[in-house]
Amino acid sequence: MHVRLPLTTAGVCLVLLLGGCSPGDEKKPSVSLDARTTTFEHSLDAITDPKLKDAVTELGGSLLLLERAQLKLDSTPLKTVYGEDTLGILKHYPSPQALVDTFINGLFVVHKDASSDYLTDLQPVFPFNLNIPGGFLFPHGVEWQSVTLSNKRVIAYQPEWSETDPGIQLSPSSSNVNNPDDLTVTYPFIEGLDVDKKSQPQPVSLQGKVEVIAPRRLFSFNLSQKDVGQTRTDDNLSVTLLKLEKNYAEVEFSNSLPLAPEVEGAQLNPVIVQARDTSGQYLVRAGSINESPAQVAFYEKQLAYLQQQKTWSEALEKQLEDEQQTFEQQRPRRYNKVYFNGPIDTLEVSVLDFSSATVTRKTLDLPVRTFSQHTTEKAIQPLDPAVVVYDDLAPNWLKGASLTEEALKAGIRIHQSVEDPSAARIEFSHRRTFNDELLGDDFSPGESPVTFFTEKRSGKLDEPIELPPEAYQVDPLQATITYDLNLFPETPAIAVGSMPLFLASVEKKAYDAKSLPKGLEIKNNTLVVDLKLFPANAWRFFVKDDSGNYLKQILSVSHDASADGPALFGVHYFYGRPTHVETYQRTELNTVQYGFEVKLDKAQQSDTAP
Questions:
Q1: How far apart are CA 325 and CA 322, in angstroms?
Q2: What is the pLDDT of residue 33?
Q3: Which residues of the chain fall below pLDDT 70?
Q4: pLDDT at residue number 446
Q5: Do 306 and 59 meet the contact criterion of CB atoms below 8 Å apart?
Q6: Burial of 564 (0-12, 13-18, 19+ CB in 10 A)
Q7: Measured distance CA(561)–CA(35) in Å, rounded
Q8: Which of 162, 332, 176, 319 is nearest to 254 (CA)?
Q9: The predicted structure's pLDDT at residue 23
């Protein structure tokens, strides 16, 4: 059946995830939507034909979930959050094909220790982050086929681990849902028999194949409020800005040429919509809706027709498919309604032109590499994928090196929890910055006074509440206050006090490869650091090549004298050849007192009653 919305249930969930909210954070939808959902669910009970019921459930459920997503996006508070340029990686390469080659040639596999002697985890490492919204720019697929063990046995890949298979298995990892390409080698478990993991054959290479499709070209249209209602065209590509509101935009786009045969049936995302505010910085997307009002009306009409039917038939299925095909042919332009975290000033709509495409396929036979975070090996293990990848997040991240006391205080967010009256909490949090990375662990928080007050009718402070010491606890290192309402003689209304925050003073220095200080050395694609002169607790390192861009770090390891001995030197591996090094040293750790007056949330009356 092909009667469902193009945006399936999973797709709508993605919209909500892009908004950065968990299911527990969802606001309760409108009563009318809840009521219609209940009515729809009850209506399914009257459908006896299982295929018809499946079709109605899928289409009706998708429409309701789409409406729920729309309500969620419309009610999201307008709060500015900055992100990076989604197309930034493409701008570092001369052509789309060069980006594809980097993607494929930069892939390697790391052996990871698992929690069990019967498991070995394998992590394919890609040079680009695939977990960002939208993922990698181009259609791609990786198919794992087998793993070769140290005893030369070849274990075929299977999509699921089998409880009845008595042999060694290679299957997707169940321990890391964020990296779907992670794999696990599972050894047979024998009840009552202790197994020495070292005696088991270990994976030495992973086999598979990869395919990436590069478009003919990419073209970007820069739009603003004056372009609303206008269609902008470049050769076969066109974009129409239908609406530009404070935090969302509606656009339609089309490609007058047919799709290349190579991409027929592929999951394509040919348009990338980005926005900037008046500062020129990119705003993070809050989510998107890809069904136009006309599409929604069409699907609602199909749903109503389906609900009138008594049975499912091939003729009904063909009728629905023909209607959908006719509808799509009459409306070749594709619709996007994109929401952003912040007020929009300018819009950048980029269209990937798949009227012709280049398909790159490669057979993979990748050695499995082992990199322990701490190793006693004296020799530096090579890891050089021989590709160049830049870290576009580094410039913004490093702004935290000059974080001021005022900026730290301004970024504090206060959260409360009163669900458990015996452990009510006040939490002081802030967005993690580079400064947090350099705080170290030598904290001296000092005093953290807090006083609880009752409240006058005017809302002002009344008398302080006298409390036993066990009534509350302040944890300055976690920036939390926990209090037991059962031990309060009166209901507290306001908490006043001071919470210590921590701020590192950071000194930055820059060197080129020919003038590195003692203790720093560049070897091929690595930076080798003498950890006696540059202790890891107080130093961080970033490198650039001659382009002036920061190179992306692959991983880092510490070479120790022994398992329990001091660290001798650290090795940082990069995608590319460093020619310049920046050092960041914590020279001082400062304690900043954050004074607060918090109006306390009230616990439910039933919870606080004696």
A1: 5
A2: 84
A3: 1-31, 130-135, 175-178, 191-197, 563, 604-610
A4: 78
A5: yes
A6: exposed
A7: 67
A8: 332
A9: 37
Report how far residue 510's alpha carbon sits from residue 239's, in angstroms, rounded to the nearest whole number. 45
322, 347, 369: which is the final residue of a domain? 369
Cβ–Cβ under 8 Å, residues 557 and 570:
yes
- Is residue 383 located within the same domain as residue 532? yes
Quickly tell me which residue has 């616990």 as its tokens. Answer: 603
> What are the structure tokens assigned to 12, written together?
């709508």
Q: Are residues 68 and 115 in the same domain?
A: no
Which DSSP state fits 486?
G
Which of 538, 582, 530 lies closest to 561, judged by CA?
530
Q: Do 307 and 43 touch, CB atoms closer than 8 A?
A: yes
- Written as six digits, the tokens of 180 are 């779907």
Residue-wise pLDDT for 408-456, tens only, equals 999 999 999 999 999 999 999 998 999 999 998 888 887 889 999 998 8
The answer to whether the beta carbons of residues 180 and 123 sit under 8 Å apart is no
**Order of all β-strands in the sheet with 461-464:** 461-464, 450-455, 494-512, 580-599, 539-544
Q: Return the SS3 of 318.
A: helix
208 and 103: one domain?
A: yes
Same domain, 391 and 365: no
- CA distance linking residue 90 with residue 217, whole number of Å: 11
Tokens of 101: 């080659």
Residue 393 shares a structural domain with residue 510? yes
554 CB neighbour count, 10 Å cutoff: 22
Q: Are residues 61 and 120 in the same domain?
A: no
Q: What is the CATH number of the domain that holds 160?
A: 2.60.40
C-alpha distance from residue 246 to each of 134, 225, 250, 277, 338 (Å): 23, 10, 12, 10, 11
What is the C-alpha separation between 101 and 86, in angstroms, rounded?
A: 19
Closest CA to 342 of 84, 76, 88, 86: 76
Q: What is the pLDDT of residues 288-312, one digit of tens each?
A: 998 999 999 999 999 999 999 999 9
Instruction: Residue 118: give the domain boundaries.
Output: 96-190+197-213+361-369
Query: How many domains does the structure of the chain reveal?
Result: 3
C-beta of residue 266 within 8 angstroms of C-beta of residue 260: no
Same-domain status, 137 and 204: yes
CB-count burial class (<10 Å; 0-12, 13-18, 19+) for 62: buried
Of 530, 474, 516, 531, nearest to 497 by C-alpha is 474
- DSSP symbols for 527-577: EEEETTTS-TTTEEEEEE-TTSPBBPEEEEEEEESSSSS-EEEEEEEESS-
Pairing of strands 119-125, 108-113: antiparallel
39, two tokens: 């009515």
Same domain, yes or no: 65 and 116: no
DSSP 3-state assignment of 87?
coil
Question: What does the pLDDT read at residue 191?
Answer: 67
For residue 524 the two structure tokens come to 């091929």
pTM of this structure: 0.81
Closest CA to 170 of 368, 402, 453: 368
